[in-house]
Amino acid sequence: MATKKSSPRRNPLDQVMQASAAFGSRVYKSVFRHSWPDSARTRSLATMSNVFLHLHPTTIRRASLKVTYTFCLGGLSFFFFLVLTVSGVLLMFYYVPSVTQAYQDIKDLQTVVFAGQFLRNMHRWGAHAMVIVVFLHMCRVFYTRAYRPPREFNWVVGVLLLVLTFLLSFSGYLLPWDQLSFWAVTVGTNIAKATPFVGPEAQFLLIGGYEIGQNALIRFYTLHVIALPLAAAVLIAVHFWRVRKDGFSGGL
Amino acid sequence: MAIIYKDGKPVVVPSSEPGHAPVHEPHDEIPPAEQAGVSRRRFMRVVFLNSMGVFTLGAVGTFVVMFWPKKVGSFGSTIKVGDVSQFPPGTVTRIPEGRFYLVHTLPEQGGGLLALYWKCVHLGCTVPWRDAEDGTYSGKTYKGIFRCPCHGSQYIITGQNFAGPAPRPLDTMQVTVSGGQISVNTGKITKREEAKPSDQVKI
Questions:
Q1: What was the pLDDT predicted at A166?
Q2: Averaged pLDDT of chain B
Q3: What is the pLDDT at residue B36?
Q4: From CA A243, how far away is CA A57, in angstroms rounded?
């Protein structure tokens, strides 16, 4: 029968626990350069040292938290942008921008693809909601006089973002390739044709020909899924950064 | 007086003026050997920025040319219809991608080629060709007519209107015959008051 001996060595279980805790701590420290955010200082560090959060100020005034000042309209605009990006990327797995396939692909999304109808509706209603919320956000900024110096540059960035929102909406309009799309974009690009001096050329470049066809579809698709979202993402980053740098207009 | 360099540009600072002692920043000092002309830093910057400008202009220009579509192939562009021998006299051929009829008239009607835009000059409906019906214009009878289903405008083979609300003949598009090959510029549509044999392209 083994006799119990006193050993200078620690319990093996304790050793394993300590080693894994040390390893976990080392992994944590390799990702985060601050300790657990439970104080004002570490919370500030958590915001400052994170690439996603650092566009946001580390601290804001209590008065700025009043929901009825902003109604979160800017944040909601960004939220819808994210919803549209995610649902749009998912739709891209099934949609082919070809005049022979596009319409059928949309119908398949609604009838064959699992949750396809839901995705399409999310993208469609999200787009409508984004236009409405962006407009309301602009109204709020106007009525609270938040466009005045030193924020006039951010107002300009915001106007560009409004234009990008409209262009994203309009370029997405053609993609279902049904009668509504076709004639809406025919009318829309005829408006471009009315531009003084360069009208016909502008329309020709936009639709890649003299009438809406395959060239127009692929052009609108590329603008819709790459060029315009990329431009919007860059301007959104600038917009947020300037909010941080110029200070929040409420509660001053 | 002293000369200091700010952003590579020489700035004259009057040292006699009180309270305006020249600010000497070590990196702004340019060695005496270079003070005579353009500083090396300024030269390098001008060369670099101008090179970048030329490169950017070239890239933008190339993009615009790339973005300008060459192969359009639809209504509005020039469409190759085919060989002259495919269209004997007295025939009317529907060319849907160009939205026109290629007409080869009989010798007594002018004996040439016409590209008639199929849009009714009254209110814009597509006008079908009716082989079996006859039309009379200025005392002569013509075999086959264009008759608009919307309001009854009627045209003979040359596009001349002879009945219904149409105010003028069907519009024509520019026809070119080169080496026996017919091409029609569907972007070049001509209105006319009266159909004349001179509208037709002789072959």
A1: 97
A2: 86
A3: 66
A4: 9
Q: Of A228, A131, A133, A224, which is closest to residue A185 (Cα–Cα)?
A: A224
Pick the more confident residue, B4 or A84: A84
If pLDDT is split at 50, 70 and 90, which confidence band does B8 have?
low
Task: Please report the pLDDT score of residue A252 as a whole number.
Answer: 44
Minimal C-alpha gap between B77 and chain A (Å): 7
Within-domain flag for B179: yes
In this structure, which amino acid lies at residue A57?
P
CA dist B16 to B2, B103, B177, Å? 10, 93, 85
Q: How far apart are CA B202 and CA B200, in angstroms?
A: 6
The rounded distance, in Å, linking the Cα atoms of A158 and A142 is 11
Chain A and chain B share a number of CB contacts under 8 A equal to: 25
Q: Is residue B73 part of a domain?
A: no
- Distance between CA atoms of A56 and B116, rounded to whole angstroms? 65
Looking at this protein, which amino acid is placed at residue A209? Answer: G
Does residue A106 have a pLDDT over 70? Answer: yes
Tokens of A96: 């082919």
On whether residue B120 sits in a domain, the answer given is yes
Phi, psi of A5 (to 5 degrees): -110, 145
Q: What is the ipTM of this complex?
A: 0.71
SS3 A195: coil
Q: Look at chain B and report how many structural domains it folds into.
A: 2
Average pLDDT score over residue span A116-137: 97
pLDDT, mean of residues A218-239: 97
Cβ separation of B69 and A208 shorter than 8 Å? yes
With an 8 Å Cβ cutoff, are A211 and B77 in contact? Answer: no
Which residue in the block uniquely carries the two structure tokens 């300009």?
A156
Interatomic CA distance for residues A123 and B170, integer angstroms: 46
CATH number of the domain within which B109 lies: 2.102.10.10
Q: Which of B67, B68, B72 sits opposite A210 (nearest CB)?
A: B72
Say what the alpha-carbon torsion angle B53, B58, B59, B60 is, to the nearest 10 degrees.
Answer: 90
CA angle A152, A156, A158 (to 5 degrees): 110
Express each pLDDT in A48-78 by its tens digit. Answer: 999 888 888 888 777 777 888 889 999 999 9
The amino acid sitting at A96 is V
